[in-house]
Amino acid sequence: MGKQTVEVMVEGGKATAGPPIGTSLGPLGINVAQVVEKINEKTRDLEGMQVPVKVTVDTEKKTFDVEVGSPPVSALLKKELSLEKGSAETGKFRVGDLSEEQVAKIARAKFGSDDESFKSQVKGTCRSMGITIGQGAVTQDELKAQEAEKARIKAEEEAKEEAAKLREAGLAPEAGAAPEGAEGEAKEGAEAPEGAEGEAKPGEEAKEGEAKPPEGEKPEGKPEGKKEEKKE
């Protein structure tokens, strides 16, 4: 069958004969325990990181060769600074600081060289993770201030989400909308008070002439019973 290659990801210095190594190498007829021992020997300095490993097996001679790849720069940075993760707010919060010597060390571990081009790649990853270069360690006061700012940002985001849910449910007015009922009140206020038109009419009629006498009474100025004399 010749040679076969198996590639797996293992935790540095903690490979075991279980899956995925055991299940991949077992059918090839080699001593899996010896392979695991060799992997752990080569990855001991990378403890705590996921490391790519390639095992090449000569199925006829029953021999093997182990090649250890380099972990991502981000994994090397987290190991160097004992970080669980990078900053979620790139450029705003920092989680650590490296010296130029540490940058060179990581470049050598990843690329096998500390040439400026490789160090630049390491620094680029630092920026994306919130790690500064040569600015000094992150102080406790700075960490507290960052946590307070994160809490404020989170509270604002939660308030916006809650307001959006209320608007969708029709329980809150849209932004910039007039309060409910305001439109109706404005219209009513623009019209004349109820009954004003009707009250004005009687006043207008009174101004046109003298007040009419009560029903059944004759107008004053003409004696009762006196008739006009006709001219012959």
Describe this structure in words.
- The chain is α+β, with helices and mostly antiparallel strands.
- It is built from eight helices and five strands; from the N terminus they run E-H-H-E-E-H-E-H-H-E-H-H-H.
- Among the domains are: 66 residues, 2-Layer Sandwich (Ribosomal protein L11, N-terminal domain), CATH 3.30.1550; 61 residues, Ribosomal protein L11/L12, C-terminal domain (Arc Repressor Mutant, subunit A, Orthogonal Bundle), CATH 1.10.10.250.
- The strands form two sheets. The chain has a three-stranded antiparallel sheet with strand order 1-2-3.
- It is flat.
- The termini are far apart.
Q: What would a concise description of this structure say?
A:
This protein is of the alpha+beta class. It contains eight helices and five strands.
Write the layout of secondary structure elements.
Elements: E1 3-11, H1 21-25, H2 32-43, E2 50-58, E3 63-68, H3 73-81, E4 96-98, H4 100-111, H5 116-129, E5 131-133, H6 140-168, H7 182-190, H8 196-208
Helix pairs in contact: 3-4, 4-5
* CATH fold topology of the domain at 3-68: Ribosomal protein L11, N-terminal domain
Q: Helices and strands: which structural class?
A: alpha+beta
Helix content bin:
40-55%
Radius of gyration: 47 Å
Order of helices and strands: EHHEEHEHHEHHH
Number of helices: 8
The termini sit apart by 160 Å
Average pLDDT value?
A: 76
Largest sheet: 3 strands, antiparallel
Q: Look at the structure and name the CATH superfamily of the domain at 3-68.
A: Ribosomal protein L11/L12, N-terminal domain
Architecture of the domain at 3-68, according to CATH? 2-Layer Sandwich
Low-confidence stretches: 184-190, 195-200, 202-209
Strand order of the largest sheet: 1-2-3
Classify the beta-strand content into a percent band: 5-15%
Q: Using the coordinates above, name the CATH class of the domain at 3-68.
A: Alpha Beta
E-strand count? 5
Give the overall form.
Answer: flat
